Amino acid sequence: MKINVVGSGYVGTTLAACLADLGHEVTAVDIDEDVVNTIEHGRAPIHEPGLSDLVAEHTGENLTATTSYENVADADVTFLAIQTPSQEDGSIDISPLAAAAEMTGEALADVEDDHLIIVKSTITPPSIEEIRSTVADSAGDAADRVEVATNPEFLREGTAVEDFLQPEKVVFGTESEWATRRLEEVFQPLLADHDTHVVRTNPETATMIKYANNAFLASKISLVNDLGNICKEFGIDAYEVADAIGLDDRIGEQFLRSGVGWGGSCFPKDVAAIVAAAREAGYDPAMLAAGIEVNDRQPERMLALLDKHVDVEGERVAVLGLAFKPGTDDTRNSRAIPVIEGLQERGAEVVGYDPIATENMRDRFPEIEYADSAIAALEGAAGALVVTDWDEFTALDEKFDTMATPVVVDGRRIVERREGIDYDGLTW
Ligand code: UDX
């Protein structure tokens, strides 16, 4: 099939490269010339394992990139994978997406065959109507040949390509039979090869499934963190408790790791957005709001544990891990951010270390020191806070002995408790 993917950010580039890999003829459309040049030179504009290889393999063959909407009407479908940034109150700003929808609609004004616009961006159910009417207004006479569908994305950072090519489920949110069939055609190679569950529903329900999925997972972690905090007060190891409750199939063994909480580009944004949209509609979601509150408290609990051991004013304190999770250089909403802020409030001299995320954190905190290794960060420090569960932190062991006072507060249960270090786990 001929497919346009509008927007070459994280989701859009993964989508474009993977659809090309499935054998489709893909055009990536982005208003940013640098991004288009990067793809045209066979490179991915974002860091994701395996993605650059796919882009390199298909560029010049069945993957092209352009800043122009000129040939949009030549394709069978157009995916919109445009960012929907968070606003102050947590709600999403759909204006960049609406602008892309408008340009797509205009480009389709003379279209003679049916064309499907598929919203990949995460948008709340009430905002779909806004995109529909934007498209209808801009497509003019062709409006009844253009349908707006939704097809939410569930991929995780660090395994995006794998998640796309081997999904547990795909969700098609459409209004008509032909639109469903066209989505099935797009994903046919995936549906034929794998035990993928296909959910066929309307556009509003499809996008609600995405929010419910992320809100459930984020709240699950907040729930284990709430329980973990109780465990800590009672001197109980929350991980022993989690392992046992995970044996109950109804609970499941995944996403039970308690600690300093969730970050990244999806969970914080999506939970806040669905809470804001619910409030706008007149319902105040108490559970989801509490999940956000528990998540906001975890970094402060970590700092309170540190305070018990050492007064860090004027002291060097190492923050180990700056990425929001291991395997990525992404620091968006990383728990390291409130941890560093809390240390700064206490007058500590912060030294951060991360194997790959340093440069991204430097943009946020140019004033702190960044070490080239965990070992260098620990030297002479009065305390160390473990914020990201990078594997390499499991091997630090005797390196903690180089600290001025070997106080280690672990937010991810990655360092082993041992004689000679003053070790405190957040929930164990
Ligand atoms: C998430 C969803 O998993 C994915 O389906 C959706 O499309 C986008 O959001 P991602 O943001 O890449 O993916 O990260 P994920 O691996 O889910 O982890 C999110 C956060 O939760 C991380 O900060 C991680 O450290 C934290 N986490 C995860 C825990 O604190 N405990 C756990 O048990 C699991």
Q: Which key terms come to mind for this protein?
A:
about 425 residues, alpha/beta, Rossmann fold, N-(1-d-carboxylethyl)-l-norvaline Dehydrogenase, domain 2, six-stranded parallel beta sheet, 14 helices, about 40% helix, binds uridine-5'-diphosphate-xylopyranose
Query: Termini separation (Å)?
Result: 53 Å
Total strands: the figure is 14
The named CATH superfamily of the largest domain = NAD(P)-binding Rossmann-like Domain
Top-tier CATH class of the largest domain:
Alpha Beta
Please bin the fraction of helical residues: 40-55%
CATH architecture type of the largest domain: 3-Layer(aba) Sandwich
CATH topology of the largest domain: Rossmann fold
Rough shape? elongated
Number of helices: 14
State mean pLDDT (0 to 100 scale).
Answer: 97
Task: Name the strands of the widest sheet in spatial order.
Answer: 3-2-1-4-5-6
The hetero compounds bound to this protein are:
uridine-5'-diphosphate-xylopyranose
What does this structure look like?
It is built from 14 helices and 14 strands. By secondary structure, the protein is an alpha/beta fold. It has three domains: 200 residues, 3-Layer(aba) Sandwich (Rossmann fold); 76 residues, N-(1-d-carboxylethyl)-l-norvaline Dehydrogenase, domain 2 (Orthogonal Bundle); 129 residues, Rossmann fold, CATH 3.40.50.720. It has a six-stranded parallel beta sheet with strand order 3-2-1-4-5-6, with helices on both faces. A six-stranded parallel beta sheet has the order 11-10-9-12-13-14. Helix 12 links the parallel strand 9 and strand 10. Helix 8 crosses helix 10, helix 8 runs parallel beside helix 11 and helix 11 packs across helix 12. The chain is elongated and about 75 Å long. Uridine-5'-diphosphate-xylopyranose binds next to helix 8.
